[in-house]
Amino acid sequence: MTAIRYVCISDLHLGEEDSLLTNLKVASTDVDPTSASPVLTALIRCLEALVAGNAGAKKPTLILNGDVLELALTNDNQAMMVFERFVELIMPPAGRLFDEIIYIPGNHDHHLWELARETQYVNYVKTLEPGSYLPNPWHVTNMLAARGAGSLPSFTLTGLVQRYPHLRDFVVKTAYPNYALFDDASRRCVVFSHGHYVEALYHLMTTLTDLLFPTRKRPVHIWDYEAENFAWIDFFWSALGRSGDVGQDVERIYEKLGDKEQVKRLLAPLADGLAKRYDLPGPGDRIEAWLLKLAIGAVVDRFYATERKAAGGPLNRETAAGLDAYMTGPLKEQILTDLKGNMPAELTFVFGHTHKPFEKDLSFDGYPEWTSVYNTGGWVVETPDPAPEHGGSAVLLDEALNAVSLRLYNESEDAAGYTVRLEQAGHPGAPQNDLFKSLAARIDPAASPWRDLSECVAREVPIRAANLKARIDGKTG
């Protein structure tokens, strides 16, 4: 029987009231972070069943691929308490499910990356003599770093985990924005990335800088993209939930994203500030600000064509182009840099962010003929009506880095449409891998715990959808 070596999930958005993994008070729209939600409990029972099928004492590694804590739309303490409920279920004193946790921050928990990298930088500076030249802080990790002794701890998640007596020595390792597993023997590689850089909105500062300085050299490396955009991502997408009434206003904008003009008005002061900051050739700040507002508006318009607002399939044209640009641009450069010029013979790319799980073999310039692409979806109800493309999955890998997708749910009008199923990326003529065959024999969607999860999600999605609709309609406080 093929053992599961890695389990990857993403977009839990713990603490957010629309997340299925955040508990709500009985007959209320208020969050109760002191107890695990029914869906979270059912999900962990499924993970327990997967791990129990492994032979021997070795436990899998859990890869948390971004947007684990919701820091944009709720308060830190609420998100952290729900994360504690998650830890209590996956790492009980009687026997933890995972030997290791690798954490890859996303856009909604990007601030946890800032805390980790700044802590790392200060610790490094402390080793230098006073008066020494201090290098610029670095913005990314080596893709393979989390496997080594010099791996970077997640300052926040490690601190939360180590509050439990039986986990005092446990360290949550972090990588950003890409993390890789590499099999030297077969030159097979799996790359994990949250995926926010496949969408134009998350490199807005790079786009605006290109407009301000059209003759400059456009960034090539991922660390340059991050250096230009980290403050923007951290501010708007990962920090505003802690800003009191302002944070609540931003949540209302998130929930009413059908009105693009609200977002454009929110970003308008950015254009005014840039026009004053830079002395651009032209007729003056007023006209420059107007032009920048047009540019920002164009980027926002592109956002509304992106995955979480689009219907009709897991990848729309705009995001497919963004994925291709990321794969053939900064990701390829980092692969070649960190693997010392070697492109793997086989490559799998796993990302989340869009909340639309899928699995498909795609072709990218500069890569092997086929790249297996998996999306892990998410656990947030974002529309008042069921969105069949939205759902959550876990990507599972064995020791040989064979990958499969365990599609845990997709939203549906009918409760029967929530059934768990197993999927594998492929292309014409591609065979089922050994892990898929092994799991297909072990997972019966009609039996517990899989049926229990399906029934639980089918009950909870309409509750979250009704709450969301009431807030959009202004029927709640």
Element layout with pairings:
Layout: E1 6-9, H1 38-52, E2 61-64, H2 76-90, E3 100-103, H3 110-125, E4 152-153, H4 155-161, E5 173-174, E6 178-183, E7 188-193, H5 204-212, H6 222-238, H7 245-255, H8 260-277, H9 285-303, H10 317-338, E8 346-351, E9 358-362, E10 371-375, E11 391-397, E12 403-410, E13 421-423, H11 434-442, H12 450-472
Parallel strand pairs: 1-2, 2-3, 3-5, 7-8, 8-10
Antiparallel strand pairs: 1-11, 4-5, 6-7, 9-10, 11-12, 12-13
- SS-based structural class? alpha/beta
- What is the H/E string? EHEHEHEHEEEHHHHHHEEEEEEHH
Domain count: the total is: 2
Total DSSP E strands: 13
The whole-number mean of residue pLDDT values reads 88
The percentage helix is 25-40%
Lateral arrangement of strands in the main beta sheet = 4-5-3-2-1-11-12-13
Total helical elements:
12
- Low-confidence runs of at least 5 consecutive residues: none
The major sheet is characterized as: 8 strands, mixed
Q: Assess the beta-strand content as a share of residues.
A: 5-15%
First-residue to last-residue Cα separation: 53 Å
Question: Any descriptors?
Answer:
477 residues, alpha/beta, 2 domains, eight-stranded mixed β-sheet, five-stranded mixed β-sheet
Question: What does this molecule look like?
Answer:
Helices cover 38% and strands 13% of the residues. It has 477 residues and is an alpha/beta fold. The chain folds into 2 domains: 6-197 and 346-472, no CATH class; 200-305, no CATH class. Strands 4-5-3-2-1-11-12-13 form an 8-stranded mixed β-sheet. Helix 1 (38-52) packs antiparallel against helix 12, helix 5 runs antiparallel to helix 9 and helix 8 runs antiparallel to helix 9. The N and C termini lie far apart (53 Å).
